[in-house]
Amino acid sequence: MDKPERKPEAPFRSFGDYRWDEVPLLAYKEEGAAPFKAITRQVLFQNPELACEMRYFEVAPGGYSTLERHQHSHGVMILRGAADVLVGSQIRAVKTFDLVHIPPMTWHQFRTTGEEPMGFVCMVNAARDKPQLPTADELEVLKSDPVIAAFLG
Amino acid sequence: MDKPERKPEAPFRSFGDYRWDEVPLLAYKEEGAAPFKAITRQVLFQNPELACEMRYFEVAPGGYSTLERHQHSHGVMILRGAADVLVGSQIRAVKTFDLVHIPPMTWHQFRTTGEEPMGFVCMVNAARDKPQLPTADELEVLKSDPVIAAFLG
User: Fold this and answer.
1) Span A98-127, mean pLDDT?
2) Is residue B5 in some structural domain?
3) Chain A contact for B77, CB < 8 A?
4) How far apart are CA B13 and CA B74, in angstroms?
5) Per-residue pLDDT tens for B15-62?
6) Does the beta carbon of B9 lie under 8 angstroms from any beta carbon of chain A?
7) Residue A10: inside a domain
8) What percent of chain A is predicted at pLDDT more than 70?
9) ipTM for this model
10) Chain B nearest CA to A101, separation (Å)
11) Mean pLDDT taken over chain A
């Protein structure tokens, strides 16, 4: 997939209040593209020399990421706050510096818990496929597990 | 380069005291391979689905990484503590969640400051070249800048 041109990162970019020098605060996804709530995105590393990108996503209290799957994989580290996370058929409570690995074609969703924003970095291949949303049938199958049904709300 | 076989990461691995479930504490490099002091390495994400790896390095107070350069690039985020970092001809003080980008063929070194260990995650291409150490002549050139000479000690 073509990526928009982006100038190389400066050697040093400082952190302050979950923002970084020169890093714009972006929408999580195009509005209406998929169901999600209260998330922002910041691209921390994205340049032609690196085969992966590192993004920072922040979910406000009560927010959640899109329930989706894709061929590409995610390597996630929580940076702040707490969430319940669905990966395949497992749901786990996570907190700062915990790791989450999303294998290929595995349904996943992050939902904040508690009163604080939940932020995480996500490492992902620069060349990757588009996420898939569950069909009504696939959602039915997922929700046949009462724990997952309760998680999805 | 061939990488040793490694089983896929579990979906969830918890953090505690700068260690992670199932993640072994490794030597930074082979002893005697290059100059460095007081560093450990933990590989947080390394699997065939991801084109990059994420490693966590921790440098004890007074420690430092190898002064080196290579064709591959690094995307670094500080997780704890503080350091002075050399990238090319720039030296900067960094602290938790600051970002450091090491471009190709750029001399770099991390040196802790303060009384705390300094830890950082480093994103790097899975396929990469071997680091180069400076020759005596290259070291001479680097040290012709008095600020860099003082940094290198």
Assistant:
1) 97
2) no
3) yes
4) 24
5) 999 999 999 999 888 777 788 888 999 999 999 999 999 999 999 999
6) yes
7) no
8) 96
9) 0.93
10) 4
11) 94
Instruction: Tell me the residue type at B43.
Output: V
Nearest to A64 by CA among A40, A41, A36: A36
| Distance from C-alpha of A111 to C-alpha of A92, rounded to nearest angstrom | 10
Q: Which pLDDT tens digit goes with each residue over A51-73? A: 999 999 999 999 999 999 999 99
**Strand, coil or helix: B7:** coil
Write the residue in B79, B121, B123 that is nearest to A52 by C-beta.
B123
Q: pLDDT value at position B5?
A: 60
> How far, in Å, CA of B61 to CA of A144, rounded?
53
Domain residues for the domain of B109 are 15-152
Q: How confident is the model at residue A34 (pLDDT cuts 50, 70, 90)?
A: confident
Q: Is residue A2 part of a domain?
A: no
Contact B13, B23 (CB under 8 A): yes
CATH of residue A72's domain is 2.60.120.10
The candidate with the shortest Cα–Cα distance to B59, out of B101, B100, B120, B106, is B120
Catalytic annotation present for B52: no
Interface residue of B6, B22, B71, B123 to substitute, partner A, most A CBs within 10 Å: B123
Per-residue pLDDT, B1: 43
- The pLDDT value recorded for residue A30 is 76
For residue B120, the one-letter residue type is F
C-alpha separations of B27 from B31, B37, B41, B86 in Å:
8, 11, 6, 22
* pLDDT given at position B6: 66
Residue A50 confidence (pLDDT) above 90: yes
Q: Which residues of B touch A8 (CB under 8 A)?
A: 101, 103
Identify from B17, B58, B77 which residue to disrupt to test chain A contact, counting A C-beta atoms within 10 A and taking the largest count.
B77
Contact A98 B15 (CB under 8 A): yes
Number of domains in chain A: 1
The answer to whether residue B3 is domain-embedded is: no
